[in-house]
Design a protein that fits this description.
By secondary structure, the protein is of the alpha/beta class. Helix content is 42%, strand content 12%. Helix 4 packs across helix 8 (223-240).
Amino acid sequence: MESPSWAYVVRNALGAALLIVGTVVVTKTYGSSLAQRTSRLSLELLERRKLEHLHTKPEAILYGSIGDGIESCIGTTPLIKIKSLSAQTGCEILGKAEFLNGGGGSPKDRVALSIITKAESEGLLTPHSGDTIYEGTVGSTGISLATIARARGYLAHICMPSDQAIEKSELLLKLGAIVERVPPAPIIDQNHFVNRARNLAREHTEDPNKPGRGFFADQFEAEANWQAHFEGTGPEILRQCNGKVDAFVAGAGTGGTIGGVAKYLKSQLPDVKIGLADPQGSGLYNRIKFGVMFDPKEREGTRRRQQVDTIVEGIGINRVTANFEVGRELIDEAFRVEDSQALNMARWLVAKDGLFLGSSSAVNCMALPIFPVTVTNHFVPGVAAVEMARKLGPGHRIVTILCDSGTRHLSKFWTHAGNVGGQTELDFDAIFAVDE
């Protein structure tokens, strides 16, 4: 940090001197009680000047404000400029830093809190009664549920596919959750991780020997999911942008984030463009582009995984959910992002911006340059969104979601990405290359 200027030193020295003299005068004239109050106010003003010198806006510090538990750390996340992508595209590329949510460190904190508080208000959950929250999740929602459940007097029982990064289930165990890693299966199979959680919740409630009730969070279909983003994330983005947003881009797993944010932004800014960033193997890209849920990698006999054929976790799905349907007709464009492109973008963001992010964030950011980039000579999957590029072009403001930290993706996504090492000179155009 740079040294204080002489003006700053003199101004604060004079302020301290005036504080001492003023306190003495007030004490002699009006008594010690008023003098103490005057002294406290003066010290607060001096503290505010220090904050100003440190380039911190005083109004951002809520004096006398104390949060009520871990729940108060959720929401109001920073919106940051991603400098390297902004410089390369000519647009202002902004990332909503949802990895800074203080519960489970992802946008799922908002969803988990919304689901739990809604269930409490409807009498479906009672704190400290032995109630257990069951959920099927690939990781982030489970982590958020486990964190908030403990804070509000519940247990969490999480079912997740066995092919997800092991650090997620390890973290869930440390948070006191019961964790079942189940083999990947189609949604029509009762052993699918979501169906497993639903059935366990019902069995818990029906078992007279178990304390409390079983509550199935049902993140894929619960209205509390998209409502959390309609009431929180969307309004925050609009306020942080002072009402100017040209486009919003996000991936979809449950569809709650893009559904809720799109619904809010479109209600305030009818001309805002909404873009879906979809990983390879997911059917949502074709759902938006062609009205069908199909991906070539999901053909009979070619699928390597049962859910979505990609190393990306947290987004991408091959069925329509209630949360995605909320915003489906509001989505203007969809972009397919290949695994190799997501890996390239993840490395780029570390090397150029110091942002160590998870796989879904890399997909979101990969879709951002698509808006302003014009490709005229050939088609490259995930890059040649020519129509949208021509509609926007340089000079626009595009917002996306930075979902979670790369620390949750070390054993899988970042194992494929490898170490960035000392590399600093990277070719931006090479990010868009697709491995055959």
